Amino acid sequence: MRINYNVSAMLANNTLSNNDNRLSKSIERLSSGLKINNAKDNPAGLAMAKRMNAQIKGTEMASQNANDGISVLETADGALSEIQAMIQRMTELSTKAATGTLTDDDRDIIQKEIEQLQKEIDRISDTTQFNGQNLLDGTYGIKAYTTNNDVKVSNVSLDVLPKEYEIQALSWTVKDEDTGEMEATFEPGEGFPSPNASDYNINMTDNYVTIDGPSGFSMTYAINEALVFDADGKPQAGDIGGSFKIDVTDVGPMRLQVGSNEGQIIAVDIPAVSLGNMGIAKIDVSTQEKAGYALDRLTEATSFINSVRGKLGAYQNRLESTTENLGVVDENMTSAYSRIMDVDMAAEMTDYSTYNVLVQAGTSVLAQANDRPSTVLQLLQ
């Protein structure tokens, strides 16, 4: 028997120390509910889980962004609903003014109400906001610029590609002196989807010219009023005086981040809902003929509002689908994250019980192993 080195006690102490470490880790997992508490527990699993967690948080925020976008569209659509109701009222008034039973004095009274409705439409367009940002004044419409100071781009459809376009000539004439109806012609140049002017429908109301072409191509231009109207405010024939270019950009639409990665966006184009774009800036029902022409223009204005509301409704449906998809992605990613990070409490409790018994047994055995050298004293008696 040896008393200088108690190997049995050393073996028992090492085993007890290992079991105590396992018991401590088991207690840590049970108290936190996590399978991985430190990088040393599972380096690869921790790296994967943290990437998943970042994507989960990003997905949750993207879902909130999509819901905010839906709120924006609902706000804009509510304002457009009121504008549409006012256009309907203006249609009713113009219909009344177009009948032969009214005098010009009666039509002057009707004209005053129409002017007030026009001012209210302008006010709604200029002041409809979400989170302090204007929605209907063209802030979130596609931006385009021209090389001619007398021509401004008022509206561009989403089907117009962002590049440079050229109009070689643009002129207009007065079609009806009594009603002020006008018609315009133009020669398409570089960039336009078709080089033939016959492939386009060009419409002019007041100083606004709209060119509709193949594949949803549409541009509206506002021409300097000094070129279109004389000193008395009456329309006159004229032209731009040479060619000019239009630079259509991809800047303007509201960009909604609907994903946790770069580039996962939805661009929402909200055109300017102005009297000029609707073609009713200078509605006049002071005579029976003008009231009849006003009805045509109000019909076009109704079509414009219907088109914008239809576009916003399509965006809203898309965002609702996006929100539902993000919810499914979040659910699946969270489930995968849980499988990596969360501990199985039943299995861990079994391990805890095993380690606890082993520690208690090891403690008892170590006490006995430490007591073994004392038996040598019996040989010395």
Quantity of strands, as a count:
13
**Strand composition percent:** 15-25%
Q: Between the first and last Cα atoms, what is the distance in angstroms?
A: 16 Å
The H-and-E topology, N to C, reads as: HHHEEEEEEEEEHEEEEHHH
Oligomer: single chain
What is the 3D shape? rod-shaped
The poorly predicted ranges are none
Q: In angstroms, what is the radius of gyration? A: 39 Å
Q: Main β-sheet, in a few words?
A: 5 strands, antiparallel
Helix content: 40-55%
- Decide which structural class fits the backbone: alpha+beta
Give the mean pLDDT: 90
The number of helical runs is 7
Description:
The chain has 381 residues and is an alpha+beta fold. It contains seven helices and 13 strands.
Sum this structure up briefly.
The chain has helices spanning 7-32, 43-97, 104-127, 225-228, 275-278, 288-341, 345-371; strands spanning 129-130, 133-134, 144-146, 151-156, 164-176, 181-188, 201-205, 208-212, 218-223, 238-239, 244-248, 254-257, 265-268.
